[in-house]
Specification:
By secondary structure, the protein is mainly alpha-helical. The protein is 51% helix and 5% strand. It is built from 13 helices and 5 strands.
């Protein structure tokens, strides 16, 4: 089969798959990175079907079971298996709805059970150490300090951070306009310390990068930063701060949500600030509140052991 390309730069070996990838970009507005992940998963399916003498048109549920078995034999994690299956399901559902295929062989497949994973986050002390690592006396160090402050102050995704453009920050209101997944816009307040740093950077430091693009944060060439570039910076500063755990830019987002909830914020507010479309996406943080709720319960409930009146059973136990 000949490889086909679409306008996104992704490609597969099948026109139906390419139609689906184009649909993801044009109609669903998925990012290039997400679309590339879908393309890789679908390409893996197409390659496997080719080895067993099948195709998308002749694919059956049995073929997909064999494909999942093949992936398990490669020792893929449950999360990777679930992602592959999600990509395959989306492809077949689209193809059937568009009249490109007659049946959906993935309809009855069950997703692999995923282990409950708690988000990795930093303590307040660790975050303070990390934010102090960039050398604010240099232009690059000051830029890095502002970026780290915004990641933590606003709970930004890395794509949201590097996508910030001039005009997305309103210094009069202290609000940042953020474009999240599927280009969904949200407004996030920036606390005063981060506002002051950002204004200083925009007024006095950014011009020194000789801007060629409208991104707020620029590299030495005056162009917008890449995801990989920010990843490397975070890793370097984390090591300098003595943080031995493996963290990423997304750790700032998890820490943002964690510390807000620990401070008493309600889940609905955190959902809005994070830009989650559904509350269940924010509920991964509910475990964080358990310790605080236990302390509040113990302190204020009239029947808590520590508050039992003298003479009642258990008061002196």
């Amino acid at each position: 089969m000949n490889s086909m390309h679409d306008d996104t730069g992704t490609h597969t070996a099948h026109p139906v798959a390419d139609r689906y990838l184009e649909h993801l970009v044009v109609e669903r507005g998925l990012s290039d990175n997400t679309t590339q992940a879908y393309a890789a998963d679908i390409a893996a399916l197409l390659a496997f079907l080719d080895t067993i003498g099948a195709s998308l048109e002749t694919c059956t549920q049995r073929h997909l079971f064999l494909f999942l078995t093949h992936l398990r034999a490669r020792k893929l994690a449950a999360t990777s298996l679930a992602r592959h299956l999600s990509s395959v399901r989306g492809l077949f559902a689209f193809a059937v709805q568009a009249g490109l295929l007659a049946e959906d062989p993935s309809a009855l497949l069950e997703s692999p059970k995923l282990p409950a994973q708690l988000p990795e986050f930093l303590t307040c002390a660790e975050m303070d150490r990390l934010l102090e690592q960039p050398d604010a006396g240099t232009a690059l160090g000051f830029r890095d300090r502002v970026m780290l402050e915004l990641l933590y102050a606003c709970g930004l995704r890395i794509s949201e951070l590097i996508g910030l453009a001039l005009g997305d920050f309103d210094p009069q209101t202290g609000v940042l306009r953020v474009f999240g997944k599927r280009a969904k816009e949200r407004l996030v307040p920036v606390h005063y310390a981060a506002q002051r740093l950002l204004c200083d950077y925009l007024d006095h430091k950014r011009a020194g990068f000789k801007p060629l693009q409208k991104h707020i944060f620029l590299n030495r060439s005056g162009k917008g930063l890449t995801r990989q570039g920010v990843w490397k910076l975070v890793k370097r500063y984390a090591e300098a701060a003595g943080i031995r755990r493996s963290i990423s830019p997304h750790t700032f987002r998890h820490s943002f949500a964690t510390h807000l909830l620990e401070g008493g914020a309600d889940l609905r507010t955190v959902q809005i600030l994070l830009g989650h479309a559904a509350i269940n996406a924010t509920e991964i943080y509910t475990h964080i509140q358990s310790g605080r709720l236990m302390r509040i319960h113990e302190q204020y409930h009239p029947r808590s052991t520590g508050n039992l009146s003298p003479g009642l059973p258990g008061a002196d136990a």
